[in-house]
Amino acid sequence: MTKKFLRNVAFVTLLLGGFFLAFGNCFGKFALTRKVYGFNDSINIGGGIVARFFKTIIMYVFLILPIYG
Predict the structure, then answer these.
(1) CA–CA separation, 67 vs 32, rounded Å?
(2) What is the pLDDT of residues 7-50, one digit of tens each?
(3) CA-to-CA distance for 29 and 50, rounded, in angstroms?
(4) Is residue 69 part of a domain?
(5) What are φ and ψ of residue 3, in 5° steps?
(6) Which residue has the higher pLDDT, 3 or 33?
(7) Whole-number Cα distances in Å, 44 to 3, 34, 40, 55
(8) In a domain, 48, yes or no
(9) Is residue 41 part of a domain?
(10) Distant-in-sequence, close-in-space partners of 58: CB < 8 Å, separation ≥ 6
(11) HSE-up (13 A, CA, CB side) for residue 27
């Protein structure tokens, strides 16, 4: 195998590993994090797609206001 191929494999492996670590949905044992998650989960405006839409909008607001990280 060539060095270029091994370098590409290592890069993809690190990239995927970083992706799974960053987006692993780990909430931990932190009380504040659980309260924010519980608040976001308790939103039931409408039903089905409407509720999911509002939860997504609120998640984006929380991401912009550094609530999640």
Answers:
(1) 10
(2) 999 999 999 888 877 776 665 567 777 787 888 888 777 778 88
(3) 30
(4) no
(5) -65, -35
(6) 3
(7) 53, 18, 9, 8
(8) yes
(9) yes
(10) 40, 43
(11) 8
Yes or no: say if 27 and 33 are a contact pair by the CB < 8 Å rule: yes
Residue bearing tokens 């370098």: 7
- Token output for 66: 């550094």
Q: What is the span of the domain harbouring residue 22?
A: 3-64
Q: Is residue 33 domain-resident? A: yes
Q: Would you tell me the crossing angle of helices 49-64 and 31-41 to the nearest 10 degrees?
A: 150
* C-alpha to C-alpha distances, 19 to 16, 58, 60, nearest whole angstrom: 5, 23, 19
Domain count, the chain: 1
- What is the signed CA dihedral for 18, 20, 25, 29, rounded to 10 degrees? -60
